[in-house]
Amino acid sequence: MALERCEYSKITVPNDRGYTDAVLQYVQTVAEKIGFTHRDVEALASEVKRVISIIWEFSFEPGEEGTVEIICERIPRGFKIALRDKGAPFDKEVIQRLIPGGINGSKERTDDIFFHNLGAQGKEIVLVKRLENKDITDYYDACELGPYTKPPQSTPEILAPQRFDVRQITPEDAIEVSKCIYKTYGYTYPHDYVYYPEKLMELNERGRIHSAVAVAENGKIAGHCALQYGEKSASMAELSQGVVIPEFRGMGCFNRLTDYLVKRAAADGLFGIYSQSVTNHTGSQKEGHRFGFRDCGITLGVIPLSLEFKTMLAPRGSRISVLLQYRQLKAWDRPPVFLPAHHREMILNIYRYLGLETDLKDAPPESPTDASAEFKTDVSSNMRYARILVKKQGGHLIRDIETKVRALCLEKTEVIHLLLDLADPGTAKTAKRIENLGFFFAGILPGGAGVGDALILQYLNNVAIRYEEVQVESEMAKKLMDYVGSKDPNRFHEIVGNDSS
After folding, report:
1. Average of pLDDT values for 206-232?
2. Cα 146 to the chain's mean position, in Å?
3. Residue 501's Cα: distance from chain center in Å?
4. Nearest-CA neighbor of 175 among 198, 209, 192?
5. Is residue 115 classed as helix, strand or coil in its secondary structure?
6. How far apart are alpha carbons 131 and 142 in whole angstroms?
7. What ranges in 252-388 are assigned the alpha helix state H?
């Protein structure tokens, strides 16, 4: 069944030049509503004026009665304007002769001009103007971007086995991928470039991400997943942006995507790859373990209530915590690690579980330094989340971090992660001081600090974590959960408060 066209409209005017301004006003109003710039709107009006002048001159004899239909429609790549009439026939050579650029159109005004002979229904001239670098709602009508509905389990066509062709994304796929993510997450996915097909392709072309799509036997895009690289010199990537449309879930689509991307990461020479699995169920954790990922951290409350899983019907009472999972792809010359004494045993347990050998060093005695600290802060406003990567420790690091955290809290940031490089001797002493600001242990991420492994500390700004809702599968994850919970100062105060009441 064809989808209803939510932004489709038309007007009909007599074949009278006096209606030219009315036609132009109609087209301009619709173009502005769709989101074109003032310059583009004026260019479109100029082109429509040229075309309707041709219709006035060549389609009707003086005194002949007739009408012209002007149809405006939002289409996946922008805006379509069709001018239809049942006047005298003429061929496209008229347009070629009278409009600069002819059927190919003037790129400053429209991207394409088409002429269609409709037989007994007359003829039409179609103008198409693309929306450049717009988000997915500028390509599709609202009705096409409603949430997916889960197909009936009893439908045999849906449950039939499927074979998927998994490959790198192409420009033609980008709109469908953005559409899939929008229909699954709404506008709440943390990496906002996924809503912009051109940006998605640009990042792929620059090598910042590698998007893979799974194509079903009927040619439909069934799912998407990506490797997201950090800094250009990064030796690892995150497996993220996984989405499978409902009719193809449970058929191995995500497994095929994961297998393809793990092999791609290995072929690219990456040392490791990591993923973040939700803890409101254990399904994604099990899939991670199946592909050789091992648990190395628990980050609490990362996913906010506002993250709208459009196909998740069950209500959630609190922010969702995430299990960090890592897989080593090849051996590499790992730098030494300097462990904070109070987390030493737990971190060594994680290293052993990951199967990674460590060159453990004792931190040298501290010496005063006036060197400036350097750190990079990334903020996701829709997630109410911030990530601070300490690039260089200096004499004023603690003061600078405290100032930054205060500012982030005033901006209503709810979860803050801070990454310290375990290859930096200063981390052994600095971690405790940073924890005195309200941070606490989350885990480690091999290769996550640029030079060495990252020690991840987390800070919760008035976020209540319901520990009983956190589901983890492996014994290591359960140990991590117990350890993280024991270090959470917010949980301690909650327990004290409950006892005192």
Report:
1. 90
2. 17
3. 44
4. 198
5. strand
6. 16
7. 253-267, 283-290, 344-354
Residues 6+ apart with CB under 8 A from 417: 299, 385, 386, 387, 388, 442, 456, 457, 458, 459
Contacts of 431 (CB under 8 A, 6+ apart): 340, 342, 343, 420, 455, 457
8 Å CB contact between 87 and 60: yes
Beta strands 454-460; 440-445: pairing state = antiparallel
Structure tokens at 398: 């603690």
CA distances from 213 to 27, 151, 175, 184, 480 (A): 37, 21, 12, 16, 34
**Residues forming a β-bridge with 197:** none
User: Which three-class secondary structure state does DSSP give residue 126?
Assistant: strand
Separation CA 318–CA 470 (nearest Å): 10
What is the amino acid identity at position 209?
I
pLDDT at position 351, please? 97
- pLDDT grade for 98, boundaries at 50, 70 and 90: low
Query: If pLDDT is split at 50, 70 and 90, which confidence band does 199 have?
Result: confident
Residue whose entry in the numeric block shows the structure tokens 């290293």: 351
Whole-model pTM?
0.71
Q: Rounded CA gap, 453 and 356, in Å?
A: 11
> Domains along the chain?
8-132 (3.30.565.10), 139-328 (3.40.630.30), 343-500 (3.40.630)
- What gap in Å lies between CA 467 and CA 464, rounded to an integer? 9
> How far apart (Å, rounded) are the C-alpha atoms in residues 195 and 197?
6
List, in sequence order, every residue forming a beta bridge with 202; answer none if it has no partner. Answer: none
Structure token digits, residue 346: 């737990």
Average pLDDT over residues 452-475: 94
Residue 123 confidence (pLDDT): 86
Helix locations, 113-218, DSSP H: 156-159, 171-185, 197-205
Three-state SS at 421 = strand
Query: Considering the chain, what percentage of its residues have pLDDT values greater than 70?
Result: 81
